[in-house]
């Protein structure tokens, strides 16, 4: 049961916001909190499955990733984003990786953010660190430790999912992101403060490389930091600094805020996990609104299989004739190609759905 609770998120609750937006869209849900130190494993796996089914997003506490590992990653991110625009532009890596500002993907999506997108392959990290940081070893050390920690949490959650669903192969999903060929990526997002709120009348928008046309025009009350979308991968592991902005939708399409909680991780169900569970889980649609005086920084680990891995429902999810596969088989590489040919907010899984009343 999803229980709406009082919205205590002040950054989303300014007077202007209250009058501008419908209260229906202002709800804060008490999203599930999963305590990984819980000893009763079957209860834990039940809780994880329920959280994936009902919300597609939940908080994980007692995850054992040292606070210092998360802080070091955050510090490295902050150091990078504090550089000048031309220094940051030097971190250009093969598309879609490297530094990006305002543009998301290749199809015209924009947001009030800048970011670093990196493949999690250690060789890729060590190579790209040279163009990102003046202290490449320090940077790559922090990034690799963060990836290791986030990957461990992702594997633990996936093992609990598999257990809770009664899947025989205990590592059916975690083995995909542990694979050396895994296509997992790391994204560090930086959402500058909402300049309109700071009311810097002297701000020179034309000199600001990250100013969008909307911010130049002053349309920045609740500007879109990162537009509505679902993550294409299996599972997303996210941490952020203490600045709000993330929102997600219920399965009924009601937006709710996800208040930040820095020592903990948030987990989101991605499109590939929706297919592996034959639609028992639904990937969560989410977005980021920037409406604060402080910069938000988020660190996202997107756990993905190798490019040649087939994305099809786990055998136990299609074990009866009443429960046929709802998706045509495709590889992760094919899916990525489709993802990158579409806009951020598109429902990309639609083209892979089987319509059971018509033969395919
Ligand atoms: C507009 C786009 C950016 C994106 C690729 C896409 O064509 C559609 C999905 C986007 C997304 C969302 C989650 C992750 O941040 C991301 C890295 C991913 O795998 O899919 C981004 C892609 C991106 O920014 O390159
Ligand atoms: O920055 C955030 O909190 C979320 C960003 C996001 O959804 C993404 O990078 O895919
Ligand atoms: Fe996302």
UniProtKB/TrEMBL annotation:
What pathway, per the record? Answer: Hormone biosynthesis; Plant hormone biosynthesis; gibberellin biosynthesis
Provenance organism = Arachis hypogaea (Peanut)
In terms of superkingdom, the source organism counts as: Eukaryota
Entry GO MF terms: gibberellin 2-beta-dioxygenase activity; metal ion binding
Query: What InterPro entries does UniProt report for this protein, alphabetically?
Result: DIOX_N, IPNS-like_FE2OG_OXY, IPNS-like_sf, Iron_ascorbate_oxido_reductase, Oxoglu/Fe-dep_dioxygenase_dom
Provide ranges: composition bias, Polar residues: 1-16
Alphabetical list of PROSITE patterns matching this protein: FE2OG_OXY
Give GO BP annotations, semicolon-separated.
gibberellin metabolic process
Q: What name does UniProt use for this protein?
A: gibberellin 2beta-dioxygenase
Q: What is its EC number?
A: 1.14.11.13
Q: Does the keyword Iron apply?
A: yes
* Reactions this protein catalyses: gibberellin A1 + 2-oxoglutarate + O2 = gibberellin A8 + succinate + CO2
